[in-house]
Design goal:
- The chain is α+β, with helices and mostly antiparallel strands.
- It is 36% helix and 15% strand.
- The protein has helices spanning 3-9, 26-34, 53-69, 76-82, 109-125, 137-140, 143-149, and strands spanning 45-50, 95-102, 129-132, 155-164.
- Helix 2 crosses helix 5.
- The N and C termini lie far apart (39 Å).
């Protein structure tokens, strides 16, 4: 599979089997993240990996609780999902990769998102599904949870990505044609 095939084939997966991702695959995902281009050349990303299903469930429940306490910050459609007791914000995935940034390097946030794309493309190439679970940031950046997860105070969780085995084939969604606002070309005769 070439990179363009991976880009065109990758989908966000929102339904996973309970099969655990082999811990031997995770370092390759992190290596892919570390090889991402950097906007600032600071290599400011740090990683926390969770493969403890009970801890993932706790973080899901905590996120749902925090969402319910701050409904003004979310769309009502999001809240509809979050109030269902059976809803898991990680969609049943067994691995969570949290990409963090050093808060002293705020312009490096772009680097974390570039690293996230590499993780997701590498996961797809390995036969794994992935999805950004941005709603988890509420719990992941909670002071007590950062202590529990060993995320040093100078770091902030930026991109939580779930990784696992898709429960079924994810059907491609239709995309709008790219909207090109302007395109300036030099007219050379």
């Amino acid at each position: 599979m070439n990179v363009f095939e991976a880009i065109l084939g990758m989908r966000s997966v929102r339904d996973y089997t309970s099969e655990q991702v082999d811990a031997k695959k995770v370092p390759s995902l992190i290596e892919a993240a570390a090889m991402a281009p950097t906007a600032t050349n600071r290599e400011a990303c740090a990683f926390t990996i969770i493969q403890d299903v009970a801890l993932l469930q706790h973080l899901s429940d905590l996120t749902k609780l925090l969402f319910s306490k701050h409904p003004q910050h979310h769309h009502s459609s999001e809240l509809d999902h979050f109030i269902k007791p059976e809803f898991n914000i990680f969609y049943g995935a067994t691995t969570l990769i949290i990409i963090c940034v050093n808060k002293d390097k705020p312009r490096a946030v772009a680097d974390c998102w570039l690293a996230a794309e590499n993780v997701m493309l590498a996961a797809f190439a390995m036969g794994l599904g992935s999805c950004v679970a941005e709603s988890a940031l509420l719990a992941l950046n909670d002071k007590q949870q950062k202590i529990n997860l060993g995320i040093a105070d100078e770091f902030e969780a930026i991109v939580p990505i779930v990784v696992g085995y898709a429960n079924a084939h994810t059907v491609p969604t239709r995309r709008k044609r790219p909207f090109i606002l302007n395109w300036f070309k030099t007219n050379i005769a």
